[in-house]
Amino acid sequence: MGNRQLVAREILDSPIGDGNRALLSPISRRQLLREPYPYSHSVLATIVRILDFASIVSGSVVLYWLEKIYSTQVWSGKLAAADFTALVVFCLFPKKTSLLAFPKIRRPKAQIRYLATPVFAGFFIYFCLCLVLSTGTASAFYYALLWGGASISALFVERSCLTFCLYQPTVVTKLRRRIAIVGSGETASELITRLSEDVGQTYSLFGAFRDEDKPAGTGSNVGTLDDLIHRSRKEPLHAIILAFQSDETDNDARVRRLAVTLKPVLSDIYVTPNLVSGFDRVLPCESLGDKPLFVIQRRPLSEIQVIEKTLVDFLLACFAIVFLFPILACVAIAIKVDSRGPIFFQQPRIGKNGKEFLVYKFRSMHAHMSDLMAAQQTSRDDPRVTRIGKWLRKLSIDEIPQLLNVLKGEMSLVGPRPHAPHTRAGGMLLDDALAEYVLRYHVKPGITGWAQINGARGELVTLEDLEKRVAYDLDYIGRWSLFFDFKIMFLTVIREVFSRHAF
Asked: Scanning 22, 299, 347, 428, which has its CA 20 to 30 A from the CA of 307?
């Protein structure tokens, strides 16, 4: 369940779920200290699976090399088939993925339980296949033992190195989940105590915050919701727990208000069942033991999906820059010949998690007329646009330098288009004009996007223009996949390079 398991154990063992206000007994506290709360980290689990596969492959390759040297050519071919089949069985054999949870994965017992059954299955298939290939019972058992020994040796070396790395302070810090508590009273205090003292190296307290103007206390880990939003843009935050005292008169209204306020925060947000009622109970629910927990907000992409998208962006951006370099050089020369000023234009934009960055574009306006803060949006037949700039914007060539932003990790090839901080629609700043607008901050902005290829681009004149664009952006976030990104990139070339909406 990823970082959601943190919330699960915290909530289930806290007084929130059943209304019990008693503090933990000394015995239960000692048990928690001996057994830190594990959670499933998708990236770590994927890395471990890849390393296991590489270990079995390396062991099989070494064994095959030895078999080729010391066996006849006929036997060597049969054993190669057995090696490959045993490798496939090991990889496809069902495994107990909960044993990959951190920090459980660091324990030798958990590692043996995870690997023993698939290794034995590979050994058994190897033995059976050797028998079918008529190598003899004794020979079949002998070579199966060799495969098992080679595989176990390779896995032992790999898991020993992995365990050593997982105990390093730097790695532990990267894997630790940071949790913010919003609320006050006994329930919040209990959760704060748990996160501060009982969870070992798995979780840490990001801070305690109140949904009031008055901070929850003094120190670096306390403050208001504005402090939480501000800090979340500078420091990693994985989950937020709403843990205020239950009040039947205004629970729903308070939870809804907090949900709206915390929309800009890139984090999972949870609320316990005692704080919601009625139709709110159709919220997504995660079963945590025998206690449910309602999800108000999830990160749109998992950690492994973020890595997949980032890797594809980086590789394609590198390829595009190399492939388009002659065209980019010609464009740079044309800009310098057409008007005075720099080749590139840099402008502040708002990116993922509300962070500002400088976007790169080919300069399409006269240098002395450029609007750095985008207080005035570009309109059709804008006198500020140069002669060459008109064609650059028409063909969307002015956007190509944003590949540099992709390489820097500030943008993606596909995503919601970033807007300047002072961009307005209907005379209002975009954040103020539409509450759902801030949900676009949950992913990196893109050079192109689902809204652009559907015609929702150009100047934002009315609130309807903004609503249409945000609707497409949120639809993209909800439907994201690598295939969807490739589809949008393909349609961008087909539809948008010669778009009537570009100017």
From this structure: 347
pLDDT at 58: 92
Q: Which domain holds residue 285?
A: 4-18+176-299
- Give the angle 173-179-184 at the CA atoms, nearest 5°: 145
- Give residue 37's region: left, alpha or beta (phi > 0; psi -120 to 50): beta
Residues 64 and 152 in one domain: yes
Q: Is residue 501 domain-resident? A: no
The separation between CA 470 and the C-alpha centre of its own chain, rounded to angstroms, equals 21
Residue 413 shares a structural domain with residue 472: yes
> Any idea which of 92-96, 302-306, 388-392, 458-462 has the lowest mean pLDDT?
458-462
Mean pLDDT of the chain: 81
> In this structure, which long-range contacts are made by residues 403-407, counting pairs with CB atoms below 8 Å and at least 24 apart in sequence?
403/317, 403/320, 403/321, 403/447, 404/360, 405/357, 405/359, 405/360, 406/313, 406/314, 406/317, 406/447, 407/314, 407/317, 407/318, 407/321
Per the CB < 8 A criterion, the answer to whether 130 and 82 are in contact is yes
How many structural domains comprise the chain? 3
State whether 347 and 239 are in the same domain: no
Q: Are 348 and 379 found together in one domain?
A: yes
* H runs (alpha helix) in 71-168: 73-92, 108-132, 137-166
SS3 127: helix
Give me the residues paired with residue 241 across strands. Answer: 181, 270
Q: Do 442 and 299 form a contact (C-beta atoms < 8 A)?
A: yes
Q: Is residue 121 part of a domain?
A: yes
Percent of the chain with pLDDT over 90: 37
Residue 393 and residue 373 share a domain: yes
| pTM more than 0.85 | no
In this structure, is residue 36 part of a structural domain?
Answer: no
**Do 182 and 119 share a structural domain?**
no
Residues written for the chain: 503
* Cα 272 to Cα 183: distance, rounded to the nearest angstrom: 12
Indicate whether 30 belongs to any domain. Answer: no
Same domain, yes or no, for 186 and 280?
A: yes
| CA 38, chain centre distance (Å) | 19
Nearest to 270 by CA among 302, 297, 300: 297
> Which among 277, 299, 321 is the end of a domain?
299
For residues 185 and 274, membership in a common domain is answered with yes
Report residue 89 as tokens: 């069985």
Q: What distances in angstroms separate CA 324 from CA 316, 321, 402, one per listed residue?
A: 12, 5, 13
> Is residue 218 predicted with pLDDT exceeding 80?
no
Q: What is the CATH number of the domain that holds 239?
A: 3.40.50.720
Which residues are registered as beta bridge partners of 446? 412
